[in-house]
Specification:
It is a single chain. This protein is an all-beta fold and 112 residues long. The chain is built from no helices and ten strands. The protein has strands at 3-7, 10-13, 18-25, 33-39, 46-52, 58-60, 68-73, 78-83, 92-97, 106-111. It is globular. The termini are far apart.
Length: 112
């Protein structure tokens, strides 16, 4: 059974940092690209970042470039999203996904 479980969300002041984790199970982790999406209240879900677990290639939305960093630990079947210099517009539910399977999300709230 495929599972993606996010953790690490919370309430943080603007300018602060959080690290999200996504633990995956039920599939061959090394073969997949894992992405982080987010959804703010009243807005559509948007892609934030992704990483190829086979090549290590990463990509970022323009809105988070230079502030967020995605990384993976294949030995732990885990993908991380380090978020620095957080802004109020980063508030939302953050989801980990293979685009076929989705986690339930973790809430990030940035207080200005």
């Amino acid at each position: 059974q495929v599972q993606l479980v996010e953790s690490g969300g919370g309430l943080v002041q603007a300018g602060g940092s959080l690290r999200l984790s996504c633990v995956a199970s039920g599939f061959t982790f090394d073969d997949y690209t894992i992405a982080w999406f987010r959804q703010a209240p009243g807005k559509e879900r948007e892609g934030v970042s992704c990483i190829s677990n086979s090549s290590g290639t990463t990509d970022y939305a323009d809105s988070v470039k230079g502030r967020f960093r995605i990384s993976g630990d294949n030995a732990k079947n885990t993908v991380y999203l380090q978020m620095n210099n957080l802004k109020s517009e980063d508030t939302g539910v953050y989801y980990c996904t293979t685009l076929t399977y989705w986690g339930r999300g973790t809430q990030v709230t940035v207080a200005s």
